[in-house]
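Hi support team,

I submitted a single chain yesterday and got back a structure, but I'm not sure I'm reading the token output correctly. Could someone confirm the output below corresponds to the sequence I sent? I've pasted both exactly as they appear in my results page.

Thanks,
R.
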Amino acid sequence: MRIVYMGTPDFAVAPLRALCGAGHEVVLAVTKPDRAKDRGKKMQSCPVKMAAQELGIPVSSPEKIRGNEEFLEELRKASPDLIVVAAYGKILPPSVLEIPRYGCVNVHASLLPAYRGSAPIHRAVIDGCEKTGVTIMMMAEGLDSGDMLAQAETPVGEKTTEQLHEELSELGADLLVKTIPGLEDGSAVRTPQDDSLATFAPMVFKEEGIIDFSKTARQICCLVRGFNSWPTASTVLDGQVMKVHMAVPGRDTPTGKAPGTVVSAGKNGIEAACADGTVLLTNIQMPGKKAMDAAAFLLGHKIEIGTVLG
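Hi R., thanks for writing in. Yes, this is the structure output for that exact sequence:
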């Protein structure tokens, strides 16, 4: 099948490689434009663009799609049977949706209709979901609202967003190549989403990662895992922002201390009071330093019992 592939970040690389590995002809990869990165402001290509170039696939990186006649003509000339989208970052207008013979499909990292939007993996972890997964769906004009073609699920457990990101990328790639033949031979079953069950996954912002110790240990641990590895949860220790990369529940009985109060600091980590007991911060990072086990940090940095974090 002739395919135009639209994607940008790491999540979208595995599905692209899977399409090529399955023998499909990816005639064009569409990504977001190169952006300046870090302090040096050096222009850097996105992961999908780099993968496409490695695979010998032509790349187009328009600044905008809607109303872009030059880009639309490029798509028409590519004459795709199918457009596949994975974390591209833009909603496709009708002028694009109507081009391919078999329509446009999206690899979405949630069990729709739950977590429509741009940060489904982060939100599933932060919210403490028992399971999540991927959905292959037909694209429509709304936000992740099209008919579903296939789903695959996986338990969340104690996984971080980073771990789930990699797992769901591979899961989505496998499900995608299994789903496409059904579109071609007409056997694919389209299941409408129940909009009444829809939930949304808006972008995550750094400020959301500030730990609120008045919450339960489970809520705090879910937040830490949800913000791992980006943009990272944090609190304040002695006037400095301390990033928290890992945390686990501590005692399950209230301490009577104010939220964030350090009740112990040693080989098990930094133990702070929270709503239903304590939470142990086990891997932390101070400004200008590398991430390290909290126990190792404490060998050279004494934290007084009674210190209040945050």
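A quick pointer for reading it: Residues 161-185 form the longest helix (25 residues). Let us know if anything else looks off.

Best,
Support desk
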